[in-house]
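Researcher: We plan to redesign the surface later, but first we want a full-length starting point. Tokens attached.
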């Protein structure tokens, strides 16, 4: 039968009742458990487990700091969320939000049309603030059990040219796994659609935007 072992540690000036039983009666005065406890303490000392824990902990912290330097913070956060979910079952949803724009910003889009390279860093993606708010609300309402990460972006790009043409100019030779239709976004928002029921509703080309 499994047994537990309890101990009470106090300063000498507080140890005023040595003849009293202050522990848990079912756990005390057991010679087998006492021998097991002494052996455990001896192993901790003989094998220098405290020093080893400090050494391994310092190495782990150094590797984590290096990982933070090598990877964007969101990657580290997403990995931690996934591990925490596996351990506790607490669900997480991480949103990778594209370049946020508001209707007044759309006037600047015209200045990019003759130079697609200027916006290739974001794959010409953007999202309106209203779309971000909708994605956040969908995240709060979503019925998920794991740790999910979804990209949130508009359904189109910030350019008037077809997306396939933009890719051919900025990233020649990159193979496509499927045809790219019209001005569709090059940021994969399919997971947001599937998990969050997110659907972009606004485009910079809409009248009145």
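Model: Full-length starting sequence:
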């Amino acid at each position: 039968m499994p047994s537990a072992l309890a101990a009470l540690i106090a300063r000498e000036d507080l140890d005023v009742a040595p003849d009293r039983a202050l522990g848990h009666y079912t756990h005390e005065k057991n010679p087998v458990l006492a021998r097991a406890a002494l052996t455990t303490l001896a192993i901790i000392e003989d094998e220098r487990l405290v020093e080893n824990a400090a050494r391994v902990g310092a190495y782990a912290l150094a590797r984590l700091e290096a990982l933070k330097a090598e990877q964007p913070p969101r990657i580290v956060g997403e990995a931690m969320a996934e591990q925490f979910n596996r351990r506790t079952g607490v669900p997480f949803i991480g949103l990778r939000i594209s370049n946020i724009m508001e209707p007044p910003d759309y006037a600047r889009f015209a200045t990019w049309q003759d130079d697609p390279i200027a916006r290739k860093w974001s794959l010409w993606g953007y999202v309106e603030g209203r779309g971000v708010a909708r994605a956040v609300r969908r995240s709060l309402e979503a019925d998920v059990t794991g740790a999910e990460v979804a990209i949130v972006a508009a359904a189109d790009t910030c350019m008037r040219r077809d997306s396939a043409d933009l890719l051919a100019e900025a990233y020649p030779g990159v193979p496509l796994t499927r045809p790219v239709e019209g001005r569709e976004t090059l940021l994969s928002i399919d997971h947001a659609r599937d998990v969050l029921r997110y659907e972009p509703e606004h485009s910079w080309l809409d009248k009145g935007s």
